[in-house]
Specification:
With about 290 residues, the protein is an alpha/beta fold. The protein has ten helices and twelve strands. Helix 1 links the parallel strand 1 and strand 2. The longest helix has 22 residues. It is globular and about 60 Å long.
Length: about 290
């Protein structure tokens, strides 16, 4: 499985690009400012510099919340939000971005069905633009209390639109603090997933810890995910543990998804190991182990 590194704000200096390249980064997801705040020529030139270094832009996160909410009830504001989303979809191909991540909506106020109806209207307008420009839209499951905070809700909306350019984004951290865990959310969404946001937390707060430094059962989740042939990079939507390098972050997540999250037998149970020196989990085998120290 391939992985992407989060670059919400793009630093396109040669030094920064070479640093990412040397860390083994070959795909990134960026925030919306890159597409909305640069002119089209600059977007193409910057993306080209990354591609020359072997780094692709797979996805961009769309604006969300407040006036950018695609499910808001105010028609005038929602129409303006849709116009901004259209601009993202028009500009994404310039950077060869394949997918735009979409939040279905912000905090609920006992108005979910009305908000979902507005979301449908927004998607009906945006999906033809996405299809025409060859860019996919991925609807993300949300934290509790937001529009789309259940995988079943995400799937209901996705399945209403018969398009290969509209699918689901599984956000593991959001699922972990909600009414269903990440494994259940994956099982519900797996057939329509076109993007992943991998991060962890304490089961209560959306604090974007890197895998596996929270409470998600990553070995079990990774085992299920790797049964399927997802041909796109999964975003690690977190910063490296203990200020480690991007390369260390990628190395640890790759180890999880290749069954190398080290656990030893102790007192009749499997125990995960943390290095006393660096504070990182240990991966590999007892005979060939790595942590943040090496």
């Amino acid at each position: 499985m391939k992985f992407a590194y989060s670059q919400w704000i793009i630093n396109h200096s040669i030094e920064s690009i070479n640093f990412l390249k040397n860390q083994g980064v070959n795909a990134i997801e960026t925030g919306p400012d890159f597409l909305l705040n640069y002119d089209e020529k600059s977007i193409g030139e910057i993306a080209g510099k990354f591609r020359m270094a072997g780094i692709d832009f797979y996805s961009t996160h769309a604006l969300f919340g407040g006036d950018n909410d695609l499910s808001q009830l105010n028609t005038e504001k929602r129409t303006k939000a849709v116009a901004v989303f259209k601009e993202l979809l028009y500009r994404a191909p310039i950077a060869e971005i394949k997918c735009v991540i979409v939040h279905p909506g912000s905090v609920l106020n006992n108005d979910e069905e009305d908000r979902l109806d507005k979301l449908r209207l927004s998607i009906e307008t945006l999906l033809p633009v996405a299809e025409k420009n060859g860019v996919k839209m991925a609807l993300e499951n949300m934290p509790p209390g937001h529009v789309g905070d259940l995988s079943s809700t995400i799937m209901k909306i996705v399945n209403e639109f018969d398009s290969s350019f509209f699918g689901a984004c599984l956000d593991t951290g959001h699922a972990n603090i909600g009414k269903e865990d990440a494994l259940i959310a994956f099982e519900n969404m797996r057939e329509k997933i076109i993007a992943f946001h991998f991060h962890d937390n304490d089961g209560a707060r959306d604090i974007h810890l890197p895998p596996p430094y929270g409470t998600i059962n990553w070995p079990a989740l990774a085992k299920e995910i790797t049964k399927y042939s997802y041909n796109f990079p999964a975003l690690i939507e977190a910063q490296p543990w203990n200020n480690a390098s991007p390369g260390q972050l990628l190395k640890e997540v790759e180890a999880i998804f290749t069954g190398r999250f080290l656990a030893i037998d102790f007192a009749g149970r499997k125990v995960k190991c943390i290095c006393e020196k660096c504070g990182h989990y240990c991966f590999g085998t007892p005979e060939n182990m790595f942590c943040g120290c090496k």
